[in-house]
Amino acid sequence: MKIILTEWLPALGTGMIVGLLFSFLKLPVPAPPSVGAVFGVLGVTLGLLLYGYFFR
Hints:
Blueprint: H1 5-24, H2 35-55
């Protein structure tokens, strides 16, 4: 399971910029509004990584 920083660091930065822009423009954020939903997305991602690690 190899984590590549060049993939997720730009994605994190882009997400932060989009969040700031949406807040500045007072638009609804196109993301789950609760921490539980964020953990759900994280769980799906971790499940995909674990499947790839153990079954490929």
